[in-house]
Design brief:
Chain A is mostly beta strands and about 110 residues long. Chain A has no helices and 11 strands. Chain A has strands at about 5, 10-15, 20-25, 30-40, 40-50, 55, 65, 75-80, 85-95, 105, 110. Chain B is built from no helices and 11 strands. Chain B has strands at about 5, 10-15, 20-25, 30-35, 45-50, 55-60, 60-65, 70-75, 85-90, 95-100, 100-105. Chain B is globular and about 40 Å long. The chains are: A mainly beta (about 110), B mainly beta (about 110).
Chain lengths: ~110, ~110
């Protein structure tokens, strides 16, 4: 069955370190999204991609970067982790833009000490 | 700026009770989605409403899109413990805007 996976599921890191969160989907979807989920804020869009080599900034992109070298993967990199980036991160994908159903991964809980 | 406000934020009820969750905005959306999220998992789509005034039913869940496409509601009839979870509305414009969420706990 097609799926979307994220790794690691839990990560603890220190302030200033570079961290990369992986997202892999086997739906063959063109569109992939990264969100962070914080209490009281719901899900906020970090970056998104409409296809290979395409990347776009979302609402809260400062301190994050993504690259899309193939259809299946959209890794999220925190260049220099900050305590404010402690959150739960979700990757999602779909094949027809924002207005259609997005399929979410199980999330990565990141703690920055 | 939070464009989509959900109320209530928390809801704790007994099995068999009815409840309504509201999703309100001052902005117009082309469509509105409702997701349910369980602990340790990502959100899963329940329904998408597209037309102003549209009503969709999913077993004991009734979803309504406001006439002006600015708001929506989710009504659950005879809630069951299996309905427990975080309910998120999401409005589609140039991107998907998620509401703040309503955490529902249904006790047996």
């Amino acid at each position: 069955d097609a799926e979307i996976t994220q790794s690691p599921r839990h990560k603890i890191t220190e302030t200033g370190r570079q961290v990369t969160l992986a997202c892999h989907q086997t739906w063959n979807h063109n569109n992939m999204f990264w969100y962070r989920q914080d209490l009281g804020h719901g899900l906020r869009l970090i970056h998104y991609s409409y296809g290979v080599h395409d990347t776009n900034k979302g609402e809260v992109s400062d301190g994050y970067s993504v690259s899309r070298s193939n259809t299946e993967d959209l890794p999220l990199t925190l260049e220099s982790a900050a305590s404010s980036q402690t959150s739960v991160y979700f990757c999602a994908s779909n094949d027809r833009g924002f207005s259609t159903e997005q399929f979410f991964g199980p999330g990565t809980r990141l703690t920055v000490l | 700026t939070q464009l989509l406000e959900q109320s209530p934020q928390f809801l704790s009820i007994q099995e068999g009770e009815n409840l309504t969750v509201y999703c309100n905005s001052s902005s117009v959306f082309s469509s509105l989605q409702w997701y349910r999220q369980e602990p340790g998992e990502g959100p899963v789509l329940l329904v998408t409403v597209v037309t102003g005034g549209e009503v969709k039913k999913l077993k004991r869940l009734t979803f309504q899109f406001g006439d002006a496409r600015k708001d929506s509601s989710l009504h659950i009839t005879a809630a069951q413990p299996g309905d427990t979870g975080l309910y998120l509305c999401a409005g589609a414009r140039d991107k998907l805007i998620f509401g703040t969420g309503t955490r529902l706990q249904v006790f047996p």
